[in-house]
Design goal:
InterPro entries: CHP02096, NTF2-like_dom_sf, SnoaL-like. By secondary structure, the protein is of the alpha+beta class. It is built from four helices and six strands. The protein has one domain: Nuclear Transport Factor 2, Chain: A, CATH 3.10.450.50. Strands 2-1-6-5-4-3 form a six-stranded mixed sheet. About 15% of the residues are buried.
Length: about 140
């Protein structure tokens, strides 16, 4: 359980520091990524492309992190708050002009051989839209 919690902590430390090499090294090659209210992608290369796109459109820091894991360390979860800035307009979403947002979020993990084998992210897209486009 402690190893799983440490892995998830390292994952988010790498995210917050913008260290994509370390971030991606914590994933299995066949990682499954369930995108919030979107598609399922598989593979480290797809995940790297997703992160490249996200880092272009958004600047985010995750705070108030709570990490949990099951006893055998094969599954974990994290709850946190996303502090973000909307940098560049993302297709199909409101226009970006540097809006900031504060958004509760969570993630669920499968862990295999000391690496993240699946990550499922969740946040309330409607809440995010209301914060960046309060018309």
């Amino acid at each position: 359980m402690q190893q799983a919690k440490k892995l998830i902590e390292q994952y988010y430390q790498a995210f917050n520091s913008g260290d994509m090499d370390t971030f991606l090294s914590l994933l299995t090659d066949d990682v499954v990524h369930d995108i919030n209210q979107g598609d399922r992608e598989q593979g480290k290369a797809a995940f790297a492309e997703f992160m490249k796109k996200m880092n272009h459109h958004y600047k985010e820091q995750l705070v108030d992190m709570v990490i949990m894991a099951n006893e055998d360390g094969t599954r974990g979860a994290a709850e946190f708050v996303v502090l973000g800035e909307y940098l560049n307009t993302d297709e199909g979403l409101p226009e970006a002009n540097g809006q900031t947002y504060r958004l509760p979020a969570g993630a669920f993990f499968d862990i295999r051989d000391g690496k993240v084998a699946r990550i499922t992210n969740y946040y309330n897209l409607g809440d995010w839209i209301a914060q960046v486009d309060p018309q």
